[in-house]
Amino acid sequence: MSDAFLLSGTIRTENYSDFGNAFVYKFSSRYKVNDAFTLRGSISSGFRAPTLHQIYTQKAQYSFVPGQGIQVGGLINNVSTQAKLLGIPQLDAETSTNFTIGFGGKIENKFSYTFDYYNIAVKDRIVLGSEIGPSGDAANPLDILLANNNLTDVSFFSNAIDTKTSGIDVVLAYKGIELGEGNLDLNLSGNYTIQNERDGDVKDVPLVANSGQSVVNETQEALFFTSRPKTKWILGANYDINKFGFSLNNTYFGKTTFQQQGLDNNLFTEFTPKIVTDLGINFSPTDKLTLALNINNLLNVLPEWSFQSKNAAGNAILADPAQTQNQSNLITFNQRYSQMTYDGYHFSQLGTMFNLSLNYKF
Questions:
Q1: 300/248 Cα distance (integer angstroms)
Q2: Which pLDDT score is estimated for 1?
Q3: Is 116 domain-assigned?
Q4: 213-225: per-residue pLDDT in tens?
Q5: DSSP character for 339?
Q6: Which residues contact 72 (CB under 8 A, 6 or more apart)?
Q7: How far apart are CA 123 and CA 258, in angstroms?
Q8: 166 and 247 in contact (C-beta within 8 Å)?
Q9: By C-alpha distance, which of 226, 314, 307 is closest to 266?
Q10: Number of Cβ atoms within 10 Å of the Cβ of 216
C-alpha cells in the first residue's frame, strides 16, 4: 500500500446461546488522488440478535363472549406452548450485507464535500406481526386450533421479511467566510432514498398462510417503508462574532405516505413536504461560562395531509363528502392526528419548543 492507497479489512465470529454462530466481515478501501478528490468504498456484513423482549414478551387479554365463555387474545412469545402449536419457529438473528461507494475532498481548506451511495440488504428482519384471528371457516386448522384453546386472536414476533434499501448521502460545507467582525460557516447535508422496500414474499408460517392471512399488513408495510420522507435536507448556517454564536438550521422533510389502521384499503394519506427551522443562540462571557437558548420549530410548522386514492373505488369515496368525512373520523380526533402515535409527527416537530441552559466548566 502507499500513502495514497489504503486497504483495510476485519473479520469476526461470535457464538450466542440464543441463536448460534455469527460471522461478520468488513473490507474498505480509499484512494486519495489529491486533497481535492478522494475515492472510497466498503463492503461489509452485519447481524442483529433478537432482543430479550422479542423472545420472551407475552401478553394476554381476557374477555367474556356470551355463549362462548372467556376468550383470550394477545401476544405470544416464540418459546411458548402456543407458538409450538402454531408452528412458529424460534427467532433467528437478522443479517445484512452493506455496500458503499463514494468520493469527497477539500478545496483550499474552506470548501469540503462528500457524495456516497449506499446499498443495504437485510435478511430475516424481525417483525411484530399483525393480529391473526379465525379465517371464518370452522373447518380451517387455524380456526380449530384457536377455538380449542379459547383464543380469539394472536400476534407474535417472527423473522418475517427481507428488505433492501439504497440511497445517496451528500454533505457540503464552506467555512471561514468573513462577514463583518465575525466568521460565517455554511453547510448543506441531505439524503435521497432510491429504494426502500420488501424483498420477496412475507415468510408466513403455513397455518397462517393457509388461512388467507399474513403477519404483515399494509399499515406495517407503511411503517417500514413509506412513513419516513424519501428525501431530507438540512441547510445550516453558523455565525460567530465576539462572545456570541448563532446557528440557524432549515430542515426540509420530503413527501411521505401512510396507510392507517382502519382506513379504507382504497385510500391512503399523503403528507405535504415541509421546512422546519431551528434557531440557536450562545453567549460566552468567559471561557468557562456559556448561556444557550435553542428554539426548535421556530415558525411552528405543523403537518398537513390529504387523502389520496388508489383506484376507482377510492375516487368514489373522495367524491362523496360524507364518506370522506367518515374516513377522516376513523383515523383522527377532531381532524387532528394524535401527538402520541405514529400518525402525523413522523417528519415534523409538533409545536415550538424553547430550551434555555446555563453551562459552567470548573
A1: 15
A2: 57
A3: no
A4: 999 999 889 888 9
A5: T
A6: 60, 61, 62, 63, 149, 150, 151, 152
A7: 24
A8: no
A9: 314
A10: 21
Element (H, E) at 142: helix 141-148
Residue 223, domain member (yes or no): yes
Which residue type is seen at 79?
Answer: V
Q: How far is CA 90 from CA 55, 57, 230, 352, in A?
A: 8, 13, 34, 45
Give tens-digit pLDDT for 317-361: 999 999 999 888 887 766 665 543 444 444 445 678 899 999 988
Confidence (pTM): 0.84
Asked if 297 and 280 touch (Cβ cutoff 8 Å), the reply is no
As to burial, measured by CB atoms within 10 angstroms (0-12 exposed, 13-18 middle, 19+ buried), residue 138 is exposed
Q: Tell me if 104 sits within 8 A of 114, measured CB to CB.
A: yes
Range of the domain at 267: 218-362
191 assigned to some structural domain:
no
| Number of separate domains in the chain | 1
* Closest among 241, 239, 244 to 285, alpha carbons compared: 244
Look up residue 154 and give its three cell numbers. 394472536
Asked if the structure places residue 33 within a domain, the reply is: no
List of E strands, the chain: 5-16, 20-34, 37-48, 59-65, 69-75, 94-107, 111-128, 151-155, 157-179, 182-198, 231-241, 244-253, 256-258, 267-271, 274-283, 289-296, 305-309, 353-360
